[in-house]
Amino acid sequence: MTNQERSAAIVGATGGAGATRLTVELAATLARDGRSVAVFDASFATQGLSHYVHGRIDIDVTRLLTDDSVHQRAAMIDLGLDTPAPVVVCPAYASLERFARAKSGEAADRFGEIIRRATESYDHVLVDTPPVADNPSIAAVNAADRVAVVVPPSKRGVDTLRRTEDRLTDIGAGADRVLANRVADLDEHPVESADVAIPRSEVTGVAGSPVCVTGETGPFAQTVATAAEAVFNTQLGIEFPRGGLRERLASRF
Q: Across residues 17-45, what is the average pLDDT?
């Protein structure tokens, strides 16, 4: 694994595509393979990543971007998952006033540098990224080594994927992978260009907790593992039942 393959912006093509949940599940899967993961929140408006933190959030990503006295390590929160390696997150959780300051051009430049620097401390860095339309999302895409676009498995998903690809082109970037999310039929769905189709999770789990942790071997965990491999052009050593869905999916890469 080279340093150039360590960070990825997981971009929701539209609101409600499930990018936040999928970002955390990808992080848990990588940690399940013994890889340390840091997750940053670029979606300041929805604060979705904060729902995975059980406890106080004293320093969030917007404070990290606007307060020079805050060190990056102080802003990282360990999720305490049942995985061999840790997943730490830096969620957005602040007032509208600080959100506005954190969206400035100067803060975006700092965000990009923080994302790049984080690869020196963690095996992988993921950024939960909203539809590309503001400084934080643009900073995330430009700073990350890989870009994966998450789309719903519908005609709406196809349309929003086209718009997202156009926006990425406008800023000199592109989609390295396309992930169709919450797919009912893994063999047939409208997003034909998707690299990986991910079903809805068959495991409900605890609200605000990922399900792709040690011991989970169902179709959802298997396809998320394939998605992690596709996003980072890597191979995971996670054991799944032989001769099933996992092997069929992995053969594509």
A: 96
